[in-house]
Batch of 2 targets.
Target 1
Amino acid sequence: MKQLTINGSEYNLDIPDDMPLLWVLRDVLGMTGTKYGCGIAQCGACTVHLDGVAVRSCQTTVDAVDGQKITTIEGIGDTAVGAKVQAAWLEKEVVQCGYCQSGQIMSAAALLSENSRPSDTDIDDAMAGNICRCGTYVRIREAIHSISL
Amino acid sequence: MIENLQSRRAFLKGTALATAGLVLAVQLPGSLRRAAAAASDGSPIFVPNAFVKVDLEGITLIMPHTEVGQGIYTSSAMLMAEELEVELDQVRVEAAPPDRSKYMDPILHDQATGGSSSTRSDWMRLRQAGAAARVMLIGAAAERWGVKPEECRVEKGVINHDATNRALRYVEVAADAAGRPVPEDVPLKDPAHFRLIGTKAKRIDTPSKVNGSQIYGIDVRLPGMKFATLVMAPVKGGKIASFDEEAARTVRGVRDVVTAGDEAIAVIADHMWAAKQGIDALKLEWDGGANASVSTETIVLAMQEASLKQGVVIRDQNGAEEAITRAKTKLDAIYHSPFLSHSALEPLNCTIHIENDRAEIWVGTQVPVRAQKAVAEATGLAPENVTVNNQLMGGAFGRRLDIDSIEIAARLLKDIRYPVKLVWTREQDMTHDFYRPYYYDRVAAGLDASGRLIGRTHRVTGSSVFARWAPGAFINGVDPDAVDCAAETPYDEDAVLADYVRQEPDGVTTSWWRGVGATHNVFVIESFVDEMAHATGQDPLEFRQRMLRKNPRALAVLNLAAEKAGWHESLPKGRGRGISLQFAFESYLAHILEIEMLPSKQVKLLRSVIAVDCGITINPDTVRAQMEGGVIFGLGSAMFNEITITNGAVDQTNFDTYRILRINEAPKIEVYQINNGEKPGGVGEAATAGAAAALANAIFSATGRRVRSLPLAQAGA
Ligand code: FES
Ligand code: FES
């Protein structure tokens, strides 16, 4: 039995130790907001937070979670930063197909929690791991800059 | 067109009303109670046409086009809401079921979403649908009040008779309206009175996309559902040689192993992780078959040979070849455009539940009728027994205009009687794409002593997507898409010869890719136009301007982009600007890109300036978004992307080998729109089409080196 804390709730799950968190969230728990895009740490669609730090859930085995608090896109709106990021995303109409945006929002929320006034270079560094095939980068940048904490 | 509501109502009166309906009914005024009774099972009260439905929940647009991220749910809803006189937030949007007779796109001649045609095809019909519904609803209210319809006014879905201070909501007269004749030729609003069209209305599909609640095809969950993933022959036409089914079945969580002939195999499990491990345990061996010796080199060689043959003539005007012989300056060149993958971020997937006499699928598809037929054929069921639940898509870019992923799901799972979600790994998605064709273009031109273009020839050699996808549109060997924007350019040209040689690549299936024919041909034409300007010592902007005297709309976007980009301002060393101009999808677009060549010889994209004239704009913010996204899509591919083949198999497997442009690599983008009241043109693909030429021309401007082969990485830039 593995114990995971996700968005403040505890789950006891009978799952293999080496199972990536991505598939636990999506397929075992039905929390499908976290997306599969590449499975090899290239796209960032699967980004979640472990104790507030953005990680790729496709590369994070349940073993490695080890008691850290997991936050997903379904829970990020309950944090002050997450709610502001979501609001800015809608205000700037960032979203097109939206498939990458869970991951983008999780990366942006982690960035802003550490750095409330990120420069363009800070944004590049924090967001370069998140691919958007629809090409919403201009607005992602605008939206992050528009957030004041 | 009115559904048979009378009989449904009669039927319902004789049966026990659903509790919810009853509760609602007793709380409602008399006029609504009848409607509630009729609609207690959620069935519509008023269905004046294929697109509009009114039930107790409100007003629904039955959406003929699919949402792939382009914003069509919002802009098409705006069209209907404009004439129906409701607010955008009063309209729900529902994906149309497969039904070509009602939902065919008049431009594509199929129930399909592609070719930047959606707004162009919905522009009239959705406004007409809204207007007809409005007239019927007003008619019902006027009759009830005993007044003339002209005395009534609608605002936000409420019909008002100001003189007597009476008001009725649409839903309150919907049941009466259903009995009224459907009016023909209702006059549409004067654009001067538009209150929604032309505004930056907020997208209706985005709130659920920022909190993880939006369900895409890949997110569908059904009771008792299992998860599967597949592997297909790495070489097209290859076959399974051997696999170890027992080993796969011993993996914890694996339920079943299924095959489709000897070309594909899938493992069904409790979750994707187990399914993937099951696939690994299979230790699959393949026979490559006839295509095992195919490589990019053999394909390109065959194209090169084919390109020496005379093709099917598309345009032959005023003896271009002869004109070139008389020219002072003669140019000729060969351009290469590579195979490209769609790589939508949502990998292909299909959830399917097959029962003995029916099947149901949940999938994001650009072609629901084809999807239904594919499942019917694979399962032996009649199409009407196959339900298609179309889902929002995490991108498509043309990939979901094909139904191979649905067909293979149905074939693999035809003997399974529980619901299964089949998800392709990124690796299968990328290596089994239907690719943008490789094109091999031969171009030549002649200019006279004054630097005027006097003759141009263009031979396009490449696959015909039409011949496979819509054979009916492939007439006399002409693929209208393969030569789109090659035969006809925005310029005033005297003598043109354009021909097309169809050459299908071995071992590769080709398909539509964002920007379709225009993406390839605008790269070639606009690069070559740039070559002409430089070869005759002319400024690339002025050279184009001179050829646009008869094309004021093209000239206007070009001039606007040039002004905003500061074309005549000098640039620091190492920087360059490139122009691209096009008329495609019935929209005019000019793109001026500024780049810097870094000391590392890498290209840094600095600034894209786009001027677009797409006629009447439904939602200017959506147009801007499509320009921004389209240009990134096109630039990223031009910079990095090609699909290559070795020993019959695709070399690129994931985003590490097929690089997608990232935020730190993206340019600043400015979009300027000209709105001139012309009928709407398409925008979803326009900016992709012009990106590569602007980039190649900017590189020439910065370095003096001409790139005639994409991607740049390949060209050594
Ligand atoms: S799915 Fe994890 S980074 Fe792409
Ligand atoms: S919005 Fe479609 S991938 Fe980013």
Note: The longest helix of chain B spans residues 118-145.
Target 2
Amino acid sequence: MKGRRGRLRLALAACAVYALLLSLSLHARSAQPRGEQATDVGRVVSARVDRTVTVRSADDARRAVLEAAAEGRKVSIAGTRHSMGGQTFYEGAVVLDLKRYDRILAVDEQARTVTAQAGATWADIQEAVNPLGLSVRVMQSQNLFTIGGSLSANIHGRDPSEGPLIAAVRSIRMLLADGSIVTASREERPELFRAAIGGFGVLGVILEATLELTADEVYESRTSLLSYREFPQRFEQAARSPDTGLLIARLSTAPEHFLERMYMTEFRRTGLPLASADRELKQDRAVELTRFVFGLQRKHDWGKSLSWSLQERLFRSEQGGLVTRNNAMRPESDFLDYRDAQHSDLLQEYFVPLSRYEAFVDGLRALLREEPLNVVNITVRYMPQNGESALSYTASEDRAALVLLINEKRSAARLERLERLTQRMIGLAQSLGGTYYLTYQPYATLEQFRRSYPGWTELAAAKRRYDPGSLFWNDWYGKYGSEEGGGRR
Amino acid sequence: MKPMKRSALRWVMLSQNAMTLGSGIVFPFYLIQIKEIGGGFAEYGIAYGLFTICSAFLNGWFGRSSDRFGRTPLLLIGSWGMAGLFLLFPLATSIAQVYALQIAMGAFGAMQRTCEKALLADLTDGEPGRGEKIGRYQTGIALFSGIAVIAGGFLIDYFTLDLMFYAGSALLLASGLLLLRVDERGEEGQAG
Ligand SMILES: Cc1cc2nc3c(=O)[nH]c(=O)nc-3n(C[C@H](O)[C@H](O)[C@H](O)COP(=O)(O)OP(=O)(O)OC[C@H]3O[C@@H](n4cnc5c(N)ncnc54)[C@H](O)[C@@H]3O)c2cc1C
């Protein structure tokens, strides 16, 4: 470099070249598709959405919906994104995130109801009603989900006398595609009520819901070990008993008794006053330890055996323990805080008539011996008949609900295989008069979907009526719900 | 001669501080960038490894070149080259593109690291209190890399990753401009 002059010239030249490159880069970037990547806890499906709007008021939601409509964009709706089948996003859509719309609006002690905004979680509701000696009627095994997401999946839980969530809903308030806000209940707009609950966010935004509550009670837990053959009868007996408050069973995935041994935990009503058990809502206990054992279970067969024998020991020591309903309905641990770069914990659920339970488990075992999957654990719950929702999964009779937790690598080859196996498992359930849960991976074929959910035509009809422009949309609906079966965008 | 060297050292330090700041504010977010386009920890490891390994092979060569052509020209190419590459990161849409960018980054990084050390040695050669000077220099660098990572952590909440790359790029350009103030006579004896 020669002298001041030369250096000044060099600096100017560098700046000029840089300015040129910078503007080229900015220009190229602006030509790229805009948006952000959206996915769910399963992380097997994702899409590039236009933007995510945080909803804090009904006005926020209405504004976002009308803006999206004016821009010609679709609207997807998201709670805590624990659905796993693309129900919360769509390519180029505006996603409404409801998690911050989460106030508990009213608890009516007399009528035993709670009214909450859709982004509130079961944990929020439990905190509001526990001091009043009240409890949620139907919820998942964990309490971290939003009310809106739970309604739209029409979820179910551990109380064998309670149907899916729709059974405990008084009414919902919904924001529709035209910006109007309406009420839906069994009396008012019953077709909207039936279609929106279990309708995965394609009819409009659920803003608020009024849900029925029940009394908090003291339960005594009893766990018994049994074989899968004797299980259906014992399970049905326990489920039908008026003494049973909650009921949950597990099927062993340990290699030495793979899908053979089971245990069943009954939470029996004691009639004792609430004060006789710890009424304070408990926090997760021993999370790190459970997480560690769960990690072993996920990775190794011996981990599955270890976990099974540890649980046996735990149940023996807890036999006869007293617990309130509210505490029994809190999670033992949030295993889902699992953020492996390559693997996902994936759930699947199959509903089979109790009379065909044994045949289903035999079929499943044969299938998994032939094509092994890393099934970490299997829980079994009791689902009473209920056909209120258009997309009901127990419309015709009581069913056993088997949840498989599968740990799988998210590589294209592994997921293709999982898709194929899932279709076989759905086929197995269907051949025994059963069905599958829509919330999880979108692997069912269109034929399988239509066979299991003939009420899809009812949802489609409600959609024509309440959202004729197909503003509310998501990946899952694009694949299964639309009348052309994935054709229209 | 002495004051010349002292002021040269000061400009080198300023320039390299800007460099540290510019590359440091995006560094923690490479992983996000890689995730955005569908990679995971393994891809992150590869990307980072490519950068280091590529520079490993080129360090010796650039060191020799700097003996021939002088340190500052190579340092200049290093920082302006990286400034240019940073403009490409927001445009990357596949892992392969990120890998390619990382290899190129490795080359410019090698230029920068080797020449920075050599220049530092030149400018402190035969000086009293050499260790102290280098210590002071390193203090500045360490301070700025800390500031960069902290600032990056705060800024990423408000700006997109792309914007961070543009900001980083501008700082790298500035780093080169500051380098132009390094008085050649200060280094000439050793470099030429
Ligand atoms: C670990 C785990 C355990 C689970 N356990 C159970 C269980 O025990 N029983 C069970 O039945 N299910 C269970 N599920 C499934 C879960 O209940 C559903 O996926 C539920 O939808 C999750 O709620 P969310 O808030 O995450 O909803 P999201 O996944 O965010 O959304 C689910 C659907 O609801 C729609 N939606 C969300 N909010 C609104 C709104 N305000 N208005 C309109 N539509 C809305 C979305 O568009 C989407 O279609 C479990 C899932 C996981 C991952």
Note: The longest strand of chain A covers residues 205-215.
